[in-house]
Each structure stands twice: as C-alpha cells, then as structure tokens.
Amino acid sequence: MLPDVARAWEHLQRVAQELFARYGYEPVYTPLFEHTDVFTRGIGEATDIVSKEMYTFEDKGGRSITLRPEGTASVVRAALEHNLTANGAQAKLYYAGPMFRYERPQKGRMRQFWQIGIECLGAPEPTADAEVITVLWRYFETLGIPAANMRLLLNSMGDEACRPAYRDTIASFIRDHADGLCEECNRRADTNPLRAFDCKNPGCREIMAEAPLLRDELCEECAHHYAAVKEYLDALGIPYIEDSTLVRGLDYYTRTVFEVQVDAGLGSQNAIGGGGRYDRLMQEYGGPATPGLGFALGFERTLLALEAAGVDIPAVPRAEVFVARVDDSATAEVFALSQRLRDAGVAAELDHQARSLKSQFKQADRLGARLVIVAGPDELASGEVTLRDMSTKEEKRLALGSADADVIDALGQEGTD
Ligand code: AMP
C-alpha cells in the first residue's frame, strides 16, 4: 500500500478507534498466525474457510500453523488464555490487521485483506446485540457512506435447542430437491446444509427461496431474544431488513447474525461488514460457557464503497510550512527554524537537494504548504526572514528569532477562516 492508500487506511483506523472507544472497546493485538487447531475448532471443519481457504504450513518444529483467516477465533482464544472473562467479567475488545484466505481473487476479494472488528465477550443480553450492530452501522455512517447506499440484513440462526432440528429439515429439503440443486449444495446436505442458502447459483437460489424458514421454527428463548434485538434497533432508528436466508459462513454463530451490504462500487462481493453472536465458541476451546458476539468489516471494500459514494478521505498536508533558502549562506538558520516549527507541532519541510529557490517554491506547492518562509543573505543581514502566504501571495518580513511564533499565529488565523 503506497501512501495514497495507506493514508486512507489510517483514516479508517482513526475513525474506528474514536468510535469504538465511545462504546468502551479496548485494543487487542493477536498474532498473525496461530496453531491450526485454533481455527479448525473455532470456525468449524465444514466451513469454506477451514476446508478450502486457509494458508496452513508446517513450521520447522513440525507444528501445523495457519495464517489467521479472521480475528474472532484468536481474540476468544486469547481471552480464555488470559482469563479476561473469568468470574462473569465482560470484555470489550477490538482488533485491526491483515487476514489471509486462499480465495479466488476478484474485485473486493483478496487473499490478504484488512479487517477491523470488535468482540463483546460475557454479554448475553439482546442490548449487546443491538449495540454491536449499531456500532457497525454508525461506523459506516461516520465515514460518510450514505444510509441510502447501505442495507443492513438481520437474522437469527437459533441455538442448540432449535437449530439441529432445522438443520435436519433443510438437509431433507436439499435431498428432496437434489435434481435442481448444484453438486456443492447436494454435498452440503451432509456437511453444512444451511450454507445452501448462500449459494450464488440462480437455480439453487430459486429453490432455496422455497425452503422452510428458521424464523418460523425458533425456540421460545431465541424468538424472544430476536424480538428484543429488533425492538432496540427500532428504538434507535437503525433500519434493518430481516433476511431469513442470511446464514454467514462460520459455524460458531448462534442467534443473531447480521451483514451490511452496499451495491454501488462493489460487484458480487457486496458485504462490507458483518458478524453475529457466538455463545458456544468459548466452550469449543474448553472454557466455561461464555456468551459473546462481534463483527468484522473489511477495509478494501469499505474504501470501494466510499469511492462509489464520492466521499473524499480528508487529506493531511505533507507540509504546512516550507522553509526555503536563497543560497547556502542561510542553511544553518533554515535548518534550525524548521526544527523549532516541528518541535512546536507544525509540519515543516525544507530542501535537502540544494535546489534553486524557484524549485523550492514548486516543491512547497506540491506538498500543499500554506506558507513559505524565505531566508536569504539580505534578510538575514537584518536578522529577518520573509513570510509568503501561498494563496494570497502576500509577503511580509518577520524577525528570525520569533518567526516560529508568528508562523504558528498565521496558521491559526488561516485555520479559523
Ligand atoms: P467475514 O469474516 O467473512 O464475515 O468478513 C467480514 C468482512 O471482511 C466482509 O464483510 C468483507 O468486508 C471483508 N472480507 C472478507 N473476506 C475478504 C476478502 N477475501 N477480501 C477482502 N475483504 C474481505
């Protein structure tokens, strides 16, 4: 990522950090690779990620290691290892960084991509679901993606009380419609029947649209939880669309699942973020029953969505002030003055290539400097420098000793215009 993109990246991270902090989330950094087992156990053997997409290697010690394909498994593994949710404590954590999946690359789908996500551990109540969904929605809104461009899909996947029976129902449905469904969907009847809802094949979609809906077969507790999540989202005016076919790719989800999709700027990879509740995940790692939920969003797709919405990433000037010199006699003063400005928090730049004054002005322009200070033998002889405002072209003389304070004043005044 070259600076143009990396700057956008930092903007996306800054906005996330500020927003997530308001909801009490703290940063956590997990390793780029883990024992393969962390992912196979957490994400599930039958998922696309584990069965097809992981970068798995043997290290020199003969251990199987995997580049992380997502963040939740590692965060939950770390929370358990370090007792963050011991004795019923709640942990609110966020992470950011590259993830790796061996998928077929296309627009918005890379083999190394960047996710930022939050995890709320130890929180069983539906208020937590509504909060996590709200953070995701507000994040995209804060960045400037118009709500009208986005679609928030919501579903409940039930829990161990109601999902197994529904899985069987869908497996039978797939077998009853074997002829019309693709090979992959037929295979899913035995491995992961709910994933048949995710098939992109139009024929399969048509058939699966007729399948029984989990929404109608939730157990009482799941139905109650789901109704409460919707009630809280309604109260905040978060505009969700119920979609009973939203199943999401990971095995660990229970109850609430959600996804934000955007059409403009993205092709078939139109999900910019999503997540859900995973109340059984901690137990998969041998820990005590600890409810949790979270989301992950992808930076590459978020940037495509921002571009499509015509949102400019705020530019950070590479230099506010350029300190130029007429000739070498002023070098020491220019160097010292630049440093005083930098120490005072001003982005100041000077020439390191012995360029002519004219080229230094060009350089100042390219860097977006609002002010240029010129030091030459004439000015320095009277202990002064010249300050030029690049937009008004006005020039004035400043005393060298207090030039930094005057420049800071001038920058402040322009900033408040
Ligand atoms: P997931 O972990 O699959 O739920 O993905 C969460 C978010 O990560 C998606 O909504 C995308 O924005 C992003 N994402 C997932 N896979 C990729 C990929 N291969 N390339 C780019 N972004 C991705």
Strand content: 15-25%
Bound molecules: adenosine monophosphate
Going across the major beta sheet, what is the strand order?
A: 1-5-6-11-10-9-7-8
Terminal CA distance: 34 Å
Largest sheet: 8 strands, mixed
- Can you give the helix content as a percent range? 25-40%
Radius of gyration: 28 Å
SS-based structural class? Answer: alpha+beta
Q: Helix segment count?
A: 15
Shape: elongated
Low-pLDDT stretches: none
Overall average residue pLDDT: 94
Describe what this molecule looks like in 3D:
- This protein is of the alpha+beta class.
- The strands form 3 sheets. The chain has an 8-stranded mixed β-sheet with strand order 1-5-6-11-10-9-7-8, with helices on both faces.
- The protein contains 15 helices and 16 strands.
- Helix 1 runs antiparallel to helix 5 (126-143) and helix 12 (331-343) crosses helix 15.
- Helices cover 40% and strands 21% of the residues.
- It has helices spanning 3-22, 36-43, 48-53, 72-81, 126-143, 163-176, 183-191, 202-208, 220-236, 281-284, 299-308, 331-343, 357-367, 377-381, 403-415; strands at residues 26-27, 33-35, 56-58, 64-67, 91-100, 112-121, 150-156, 240-242, 254-262, 271-277, 292-298, 321-325, 348-350, 371-375, 384-389, 395-399.
- Bound molecules: adenosine monophosphate.
- Residues 70, 101, 103, 108-110, 113, 115, 249, 271-274, 296-298, 300-301 line the site of adenosine monophosphate.
